[in-house]
Write a structure and sequence with these properties.
Blueprint: E1 3-6, E2 11-14, E3 22-27, H1 38-56, E4 60-65, H2 87-95, H3 99-116, H4 132-144, E5 148-151, E6 154-157, H5 173-177, E7 194-199, E8 215-217, H6 219-231, E9 235-241, H7 245-260, E10 265-271, E11 274-276, E12 279-280, H8 291-296, H9 301-309, E13 317-319, H10 321-343, H11 356-368, H12 373-392, H13 398-415, H14 429-443, H15 447-459, E14 462-466, E15 472-476
Helix pairs in contact: 1-13, 2-3, 4-6, 6-7, 9-10, 11-12, 11-13, 13-14, 14-15
Bound molecules: zinc ion (ZN).
Zinc ion binds next to loops.
Length: 477
């Protein structure tokens, strides 16, 4: 039974999908005016792990991640309020490229990172600039419903008209009124209203025709418009970094639920901040890292993925190079263990006590508990330690050897770790059961039955390798 912490209710809840066996998930994706930093990547690794686990437990997942290729509307975004400048245009000037070329370049780089980090690709990565008609239509609906207003070619959402405003972030309008960081716009009725559409200044390069002005959309509206386009009016899970709770996700709810009058997402999951050397990452502090910085220091993308899995997604993570070194050493322990399993020669089947199925059960329990990956990894390391002892003593039985390989493969379907070169082969439990049955038949001197089982195993694509002491190995043909 999977439990997830829902930011909406501030509780761990049993996850049940709207449609049996299917999950609709939306992840707020990157803004492509720069490389994704390691804090962004942490959030995406969490989304990937969640997708993997949902699939492991049998769901068919439809995963959508947007690519924001329109500049942020900085005046309405608290987290950007210090700059007051469109980041896409700023990047375009910095790199002497058109905004489209900037977006294409960083989108490509983002996909390269996903590949290196062994992500399962989302089913679709919709881009804001190719969904302007859907965005305009949604803004029109919000105006018709009296939730938004136009002034001088600009359209704002009237936050006072949406009764549930603040339900995700638990903010109250009265508190927002006091917030000095909300930037002013002469056409806004209230300071906390946010822009849906803005009239473009002359020098603005990205602009589209609309019923209100030649302009461009606010940041929040793209996620509402694109998620409804690809997932329908209500989805199962929406994810993002904790900095998205307010204003971005709060505003997505206001827009989407204001339009459809239906619940927008059943579950809201948020990843906590990643700090670097206990400080907020920033370019001015020289502690702003991207995946390339990690690779340049001789670490692998898997070292980084492993490090991210070593902390719970709802705990803030302090990134240090020493921490990455430690994660890398731990990751090597797993790699060595997998190689050892591949090469291990059975010597005897006496006294093998390890119970890989039990470890898998505990591992699943940990992951099902709001994706507790650090606990799951500690269970994996306990298993590795016990298995290594049995291998050292030559005690590991063929059955347990095969079960250990299976257990690792099953655990790794959640973790998504790529072990270089030698891949662990997957021998189904049914084949192991048959092999065990055959050992029994041979003990009972029922050679006819033993032979039949060998043929049956052969038909399934595996070969049994008999050892002189009565044990066996299973090889995939
Ligand atoms: Zn979003």
């Amino acid at each position: 039974m999977l439990k997830l912490y829902n930011t909406l209710t501030r509780k761990k809840e049993v996850f049940e999908s709207i449609e049996t066996g299917k999950v609709k998930m939306y992840n707020c994706g990157p803004t492509v005016y720069d490389y994704s930093h390691i804090g962004n990547l942490r959030t995406f690794i969490f989304a990937d792990t969640l997708r993997r686990h949902l699939e492991t437990i049998g769901y068919e997942v439809r995963q959508i991640m947007n690519i924001t290729d329109v500049g942020h509307l900085t005046a309405d975004d608290l987290s950007q309020a210090d700059t007051g400048e469109d980041k896409m245009l700023k990047a375009s000037r910095r790199e002497k490229k058109t905004p489209q070329d900037v977006a294409n370049f960083y989108t490509e780089k983002f996909f390269e990172d996903l590949e290196k980090l062994n992500f399962k690709k989302a089913h679709f990565f919709p881009r804001a600039t190719t969904h302007i008609p859907q965005i305009i239509k949604m803004v029109e609906t919000l105006i018709e419903k009296g939730l938004a207003y136009e002034k001088n070619g600009n359209v704002f959402y009237d936050v006072t008209k949406f009764k549930d405003y603040g339900k995700l972030s638990k903010k109250k309008l009265a508190d927002l009124k006091e917030n000095a960081r909300l930037e002013k716009h002469p056409d806004k009725k209230h300071g906390y209203d946010f822009a849906l559409w803005l009239k473009a200044p002359k020098e603005h390069l990205l602009k589209w025709k609309s019923p209100w002005s030649l302009g461009y959309p606010g940041w929040h509206i793209e996620c509402s418009a694109m998620s409804i386009e690809y997932l329908g009016e209500t989805m199962d899970i929406h994810t993002g970094g904790e900095d998205h709770i307010f204003p971005h996700h709060e505003n997505e709810i206001a827009q989407s639920e204001g339009c459809t009058e239906k619940e927008f997402s059943k579950f809201w999951l948020h990843t906590r901040f990643l700090l670097v050397d206990s400080q907020k990452m920033s370019k001015s502090k020289n502690n702003f890292y991207i995946l390339k910085d990690i690779l340049d220091k001789g670490f692998s993308a898997m070292d980084f993925r492993f490090m991210m899995l070593s902390s719970h997604y709802r705990s803030s993570l302090n990134f240090t190079w020493d921490g990455l070194q430690q994660a890398s050493a731990n990751f090597k322990k797993i790699s060595r263990f997998i190689s050892r399993l591949q090469e291990f020669q059975i010597k005897s089947e006496e006294a093998s006590k390890i119970d890989p199925k039990k470890y898998l059960e505990y591992f699943d329990e940990a992951i099902n508990d709001d994706l507790n990956t650090p606990k799951a990894l500690s269970i994996l390391f306990e298993m590795i330690s016990e298995a290594n002892k049995e291998m050292d003593a030559g005690q590991l039985s063929p059955k347990n050897l095969a079960l250990l390989k299976n257990t690792w493969n099953k655990m790794n379907s959640d973790l998504g770790i790529e072990i270089e070169k030698k891949k662990s082969s997957q021998i189904p439990n049914e084949i192991i059961d048959l092999a065990e049955e055959r050992v029994q038949a041979r003990k009972e001197k029922d050679f006819e039955k033993a032979d039949e089982i060998r043929k049956k195993i052969g038909k399934e694509g595996y070969t049994l390798d008999d050892m002189p002491n009565g044990t066996y190995g299973i090889i995939e043909k």
